[in-house]
Amino acid sequence: MILPFIAPDAAPAIGPYSHGVIASGTFVFLSGQIALHADGTMVDDDITKQTAQVMSNIKTLLESQGLTFNNVVKSTVFLRTMDDFAAMNAVYAEAFGDHRPARSAFAVAGLPKNARVEIEIIACTDDK
Fold first, then answer.
1. CATH number for position 62
2. Angle value at C-alpha 34, between 56 and 59, nearest 5 degrees
């Protein structure tokens, strides 16, 4: 069971995420994904294009396990610069639709292949 929650007395979420998620079932931990095409080449140095590719990669990995974005309980976003946050957030929100897993986002000193964004996911097999 995946039960996202918003605590009514807490500060509101400032993006497409929940304060927390209560989950039961088997957990699936996805390694961080950067904007690589299936052939291993990197997407152009554009945060919107890179985030779209990362979300596509995550979708492919989830589907390989019979899961969807609705199974995600937690994501962690790593950005080269927080200046990219709004553009990343827009693509991220579109991919997740109405589903709001818990999320953290950080600016980091560097990412593999000089990527602009990397996202890792924790999913739960029981989404009912």
1. 3.30.1330.40
2. 20
